[in-house]
Structures are given as structure tokens and as C-alpha cells.
Amino acid sequence: MYRTGAAARLAGLPVETLRVWERRYSLSEAQRSERGQRLYSAEQVARLGLLKQLVDQGHSIGVLAGLSHEQLQSMLGLDGQAKAVAETPVRVLLVGAMLSRRIAAMGQGAYGLDVRGHCDDLEQAPRLAPDAGADVLVIEMSELDDNAIAPIVAARQATGVSATVVLYRFSPSATIRALRAQGCLVARIPADLTELALLCQSALDGHRPPLHGIALPNVAPPRFDETALARITAAGTNVTCECPRHLTDVLLMVGSFERYSQQCASRNPEDAALHAQLALASGRARMLLEDAMEQLAIADGLPLPDGWR
Predict the structure, then answer these.
(1) How many angstroms separate the CA atoms of 307 and 203, rounded?
(2) What angle is formed at CA 78 by the lines to CA 75 and CA 83, rounded to 5 degrees?
(3) How far is the C-alpha of 53 from the C-alpha of 72, rounded, in Å?
């Protein structure tokens, strides 16, 4: 069980935000300690992590608060993938006291993981049984730096696993690149441990981690293509105000950057998550600009795209 501060930290939330959510929406039926402090289970912490991801995508916490864990997973696109992983649990060795406790709280086989051994820190990792039949070594380190590279490589060799997943909260970019050059899959510690099995499977498959929570479910496809914008610009030459032309230029630039970011996400796996976030931000900006263009076109009598509703 985790107190409010620990639960908020694991979920990636400011403590004050969690307290406000609890006060306004009664997010969970948290137990109380003898001193009256809220206590959260690992499952409740995972739910808070899902809420955080969805709020970051623009969903209202007032709407999300009444949804089940499964519904939240479905909104993030995790449900089908999680079920697929659960059918064939990944055999893992765990390094990290907090990670081991979170998984142990849910029981063996939870989150699509078959835990074959665990230890609290990296120094103990080489002593994990190499004949435990594990496929993936999962190492959790809140603060990751260059001093961890050699021990991580040594632990991987000692345990004889096929793949290594390194989870962190804070790390220099150079350390992340160095570990990836060693063949490790490096990712931030997920708030929802359902994602951990997916990360492990990605490491085994030799792929980069899936972009959960960073895909673009909230971004609609463009409403104005270049032809429609060209018609608006041409019609706008008879209008004294030059806003249609200026807004068209901005829309073209933002749309181009959105497409560029999506391409970068697939071309550069090292920075896939970052570029997916850039694509998401530019897509949302495009949608706001399209709303403004619609209002401007209606006000000035400019042509809207065919089939516009």
C-alpha cells in the first residue's frame, strides 16, 4: 500500500493534483491508515497513471473519473494489446525494490509477466539465477547515469537473458544513447504496469517501445487540404482584410510540420516518443486554426471545402 505522496509520484502526478481529484471526484476507495492517511494499492496507482495519461491528451478528469480501469485502457488503445500479451506472459527477472513490490502486490502472472526472480538493486543482479528460464531482464533505476552502464551490461551477461529493459525517471540523453547502443530498450518508468509486458515483448522482438499514450487519437484528420486553402486564398483577394491569406500560410506550415513530425517518429526510433509528442501538439494546433479558418470563411463569404458540415 502506498501513501498519497508515493502514489502520486508513481503515477506521475503532483501531490496537490491528486488531492484535488480525490476531493472533487472521489477517484478511488482508498483505505485509511490508523492515522487517517489515504493508502493506495498497486492497482489503484495504475489507474491513476491511466488518468494522468488521458488528461494529458486533453480528456476531462470529470468524465474520466467515472470510468472503469478497462475503459481507461481501451481509450489508450491498451486493452487489445494487453490481452494479447497476457495470453503468453513474458518471463522476466526484476531489478528494483519498488518495481518488484508493485508487481508482487498483484500476484504472479499479473500484467502479463511471469517473474522468475528479483532483487532490490543492480549490485545484486548478477546473482540472479541464470538458469531461471527468464527471457528479459528488467532494471528499474529512478536516476540513471553513466555509472550504471557497466553494471547493467554485466548483469545481462550474468543472467543470460535475451533482452534487457531499463526503466528510468531521470537520465542524461548520452546515457540513454549509450545503453541503446548496447542493445538495451530504455524507457521511462510506466505508470501503468500493463505497458511493462508490452515493453518486454518489444525488446524481445527487437522493436522500439510502442507509443502508448502518445498516438494521436484526439487529432482529427485535416479539414482543409492545399486545394481548399488555395481557393480560400484566391477568393480572399477581393477582401480588404488579409487574414485569410495569412491564416492559410500558418495552416500550411503547421500541417507540414505535423506530417514531418509523424515521419520522423517512424524514421528515428531513438526519438520516436519526442516526435510523436510534437506531431500531437502540432495536430491540436492545426485543429484550432481550422476552427478559426471556418469562422473567418463564413464571416467573409469565402468558399469552404466540398461536403463541409
Answers:
(1) 45
(2) 130
(3) 10
- What is the grid cell recorded at 67? 470510468
Radius of gyration of the chain (CA): 24
Residue with cell 518486454: 200
What pTM does this model have?
Answer: 0.46
Beta bridge partners of 141: 168
What value, to the nearest 5°, has the Cα angle with vertex 68 and ends 65 and 74?
105
User: What string of DSSP letters covers the chain?
Assistant: -EEHHHHHHHHT--HHHHHHHHHHH-----EE-TTS-EEE-HHHHHHHHHHHHHHHTT--HHHHTTS-HHHHHHHHT-HHHHHHHHHSPEEEEEE-HHHHHHHHHH-TTGGGEEEEEEESSGGGGGGS-TTS--SEEEEEEEE--GGGHHHHHHHHHHHT-SEEEEEEEE--HHHHHHHHHTT-EEEEPPSSTHHHHHHHHHHHHT-PPP-TTTS-TT-PPPSS-HHHHHHHHHHGGGSS--HHHHHHHHHHHHHHHHHHHHHHHHH-GGGHHHHHHHHHHHHHHHHHHHHHHHHHHHHHTPPPPTT--
CB contact set of 258 (below 8 Å; sequence gap of 6+):
279, 282, 283, 286
**Paired strand residues for 38:** 32
What band does 107 get if pLDDT is binned at 50, 70 and 90? low
CB contact set of 275 (below 8 Å; sequence gap of 6+): 261, 262, 264, 265, 268
For residue 93, what pLDDT is reported?
Answer: 93
pLDDT at position 80 over 50? no
Q: How far is CA 270 from the centre of its chain?
A: 15
Q: Give the tens place of pLDDT for each residue, 143-166.
A: 999 999 999 999 998 998 989 999
**Which range, 76-80, 210-214, 240-244, 273-277, has the best average confidence (pLDDT)?**
240-244
